[in-house]
Amino acid sequence: MSTPVFEVRFPAYTSGSPPRCTPKSTLAGVVYLHLQTPLQASCLSVNFIGTERISLAPPSANSGHWEGVAAAVAAATGGTHQMPTMHVAKQRSIKKVYFNQSAVLWGDSKLRTSDWLAEGIHMFHFSCEFPRVNYPQSKRTPEYEIKYLIQAKLLGTRDSLSGSPIILAAVQPITFMPETIAPLLSTTLADSQYDDEAMARYRFCDNAFDVDDPEQWSFHLQVMGLQQAFCPGDTVDFQLRLTGGQRALRKAQFTVYEQTDCFYPMIPDPHEEQLDLGRRLWSTQRVLSNTADLPFERDSCAMAPDLCPEHMN
Asked: Starting from the edge strand earliest in sequence, which strands make up the sheet with 217-225, in order?
């Protein structure tokens, strides 16, 4: 007997790669079923699902203190005190469901009756709309996995002994890209010269300390940029300003890191000036670029060290 062909297909995407969606976008697809012989079934349904899975103590993270926190989280969310949208798998990870929308494309949704599907090709069309929410981007790493998918199931009748048997099942992943803050049009930092610092959408400042004497700061560092969010492939353009130097600066280098912080049970308010890092479950870093020389020149227009009140001392 030939095995039935049961697939989720997206006719608008012929390249074979997963569909790419954004908030509020609509995705149209079809459940394709090819039978060599008639098949008795009760219901064909599709689920539109978005989930995240977070490791409680990944080996790549800065562990130690976080291992104890992870154990406490696992104990708190296990057993009968599970949160309704989260669960712990083998006390090692937490899974959260962003959304799970379902629809019946054919048959009895209550699985009480059945019907015959004739041999040949059957196609069941559907469409779904992403919520207008900036969910995280689809990504899979050793520390966490964020995925979106369409799941189709052909079910038999409900049976008190065997439950709701799944006759056929198919899953198709979807790539989700959140909307980012649009960059300013016009020019780069080099062209704007930042005469008016109000143009800077992103600002950061801190004291740069002497590596040989951590108690003694050497410069006050300001970072300004036209963008505060980036997509893969974007050009990162920042202006760095060092003021109040207590020693001559002869050479500067930079390295770009990606830092991922995992918070539980919720992320801090992104508008807070200082994030409450004490609530981190774990933190991990990844090097994005090799160390390179940073060209700099003396700013003859700087009249005096422009220290912010927070870093004056």
From this structure: 202-209, 217-225, 238-243
- Are the C-beta atoms of 72 and 156 separated by less than 8 Å? no
Residue 108 and residue 44 in contact, taking contact as beta carbons nearer than 8 Å: no
Quote the tokens at residue 26. 């609509």
pLDDT digits (tens, 9 = 90+) for 155-190: 998 764 555 688 999 999 999 988 865 444 444 444
Give the separation between CA 199 and CA 185, rounded to whole angstroms.
12
**CA nearest to 80, candidates 90, 88, 72:** 88
Query: 187 with 74: CB under 8 angstroms?
Result: no
DSSP secondary structure string, 24-64? T-EEEEEEEEEESS-EEESEEEEEEEEEEEEESS-TTS--S
Residues 200, 138, 179: CA angle, nearest 5 degrees: 35
The C-alpha atoms of residue 23 and residue 179 are separated, in whole angstroms, by: 7
- Amino acid letter, residue 256: V
The DSSP bridge pattern shows strands 292-293 and 253-254 to be antiparallel
Backbone phi, psi, residue 293, to 5°: -70, 145
Burial class (CB in 10 A: 0-12, 13-18, 19+), 128: middle
Instruction: Give φ, ψ of 81 to 5 degrees.
Output: -105, 35
Q: State pTM to two decimals.
A: 0.66
